[in-house]
Each structure stands twice: as C-alpha cells, then as structure tokens.
Amino acid sequence: MSVPCPGKPVRGSKSGVPIMALFDILGKNWAMGIIWNLQEGSSTFRELQKRCESISPTILNTRIKELREVDIVERTNDGYQLTTRGKELMELLRPFGEWSRTWSKEVFNYSKPLDN
Fold first, then answer.
1. Is Ligase found in the keyword set (predicted)?
2. In the chain, domain spans
3. Are 105 and 111 within 8 A, CB to CB?
4. Are 82 and 38 in contact (CB under 8 A)?
C-alpha cells in the first residue's frame, strides 16, 4: 500500500513537505470521518462502519490500513482505536472545529449546533 509520505510528491506539493503529506492523508475520502468517530474510544469494524453511516466496507478497510500504516489508528483486542499520535492529532484539530463554527456563522450565516 502506498500512502502519502513526506519527502515524496503528494497532492498539493511536489516536494512532499510533511504538512502537505498529512493533509493528503487526512483529505482522503472518509479518513477524517474515521478519526473523528474513533475519538471517543475503540470500535470494532462493524461498529465503526455504522458510526460512519454511508461508508462502504472496502473504503473503510482501505482507510483503516492507511491510517494504521501512518500510526494514527491501531488494532487492539477491542477493535480499532486512535494511537497516541492519533489522539494528539485530534487535540490539534479541535481548534479547527472552533474556528470553523465562527467562520460558518460569519461567512455563511450557518448556526446549526455541531458535534465538535
């Protein structure tokens, strides 16, 4: 499996600077949805598929493999969960959620309560 890797060309960067490699990984279909749904704790494949609603088993399996390869998700006896690095990533993403709520209200007049 080939995941975006720093130092190699990725979407948006011919040089593959680390931040662009990360954005390429996170920008893949359902990657953020999986990470978001694992922030509350571990989940089996079937539970995670239900949480992600419309995700196909093939896409879920592919994304889990990719996220495991880059040390964001790990397999445990209880299913899949965020690694320490994945939890750190979620903590860094929380301010983006706060920023996006303000942005959506001010730019789009959108004020529906969001999960995070």
1. no
2. 18-83
3. yes
4. yes
